[in-house]
Write the structure tokens for this entry.
Amino acid sequence: MTQAVHNAEYIVVGGGMVGSAAALGLAQLGHSVIVLEAFPASEFASDQGPDLRMSALAIASVQLLDDLGAWEYITAMRVQPYSSLAVWEENWAKTQFDASEVGQSLLGYFVENRITQLGLAQAMEDEELITVMHDKASSIDSSNAVVQTESGKRLQGNWIIAADGVHSQVRKQTGIATVGWEYDQQAMGITVRNHYASAEHAQAAQALTWQAFKPSGPVAFLPMHEQYASLIWYDSPQRLAELEKMSEQELAHAIKAYFPAEVGEFEVLNKARFPLVRMHAQQYVKDTVILIGDAAHAINPLAGQGVNLGFADVRCLLDVIAEQKSLKRYYQLPRQAANRQMMNSMDVLYHLFSNTNVILKPLRNLGLFLAQRGGLAKRQVIKHAMGLK
């Protein structure tokens, strides 16, 4: 029996946030696309509780999603804007970054990953050049841009875009090597419902995200829709394993004892822990394969830049394809450099604050104290975090 062949110019393996954004952009440039996504996001209902997996979308990422036509679908579900970020170790050295300092109203939005993926999926439904297949790649022929699926389909393209995550099978089967490691710390995400004294207090608290550094790792508050939030607790795998076994009431007690007073009153709804890894592909382009997002790089989530780096990959890739430039020179080289720089910056923060060195502690707090009064330098940090130039 002759095997049916499905043709498109681009085959995107992985229809998550970054892969779907790439597919939308390519279709809008007039290219035919097949999106292979084995695990589509579950449907949204307004009465559902918040998901554990969420991302801090920088303004540059929001602009991309808006340009792609997905942002209107995302905001129709739920998002949480934030305008301020506070960072501290000692209270006297607290630094607060406000969007107003660079003439903006917001720093970004916290959005559940599933909702971002659903918004992109809805936008893809409007594009006739996109075919979505709920299937999984079984083998890759990177020399000829052929993908075989588990259901027996043969996909033939000009290019294969690997958007299938940090453990990318496309990357592995293409023979692209990586460098990296797993960090000593892990992280626990804890979904909570906050209890505020008044509506005014709630509005002010939910507009601010903060991160407090401790020797065993930082703790953070990420506001979500209504009065929900995600608490992030970085610590040793042993300590987080102990926390994972606790009841919601026991965990709430541990949080109140360990987190700063700013956490306020809350109840614990859900929790999960995950390892922290650094991974960087030595090539982003090989044969007919292009790596984007987590298939190309994984970063310590200390500053929440993971998906924003992936969306920056997409923006760069779309520009290079639109201008018909060399992918290796104008996509691979600049994106590898930018992603490596962000990885190194996160590692500096990780090593600078995750220790009890008696010399480093006063110096790093002095640095935060001076950053609060940093003028132009502080404004540049804010713009960089927003993904703006």
User: Anything to note?
Assistant: Residues 365-371 have pLDDT under 50 and may be disordered. DSSP finds twelve helices and 21 strands in the chain. Residues 5-80+109-180+278-350 form a domain with the FAD/NAD(P)-binding domain fold (CATH 3.50.50.60).
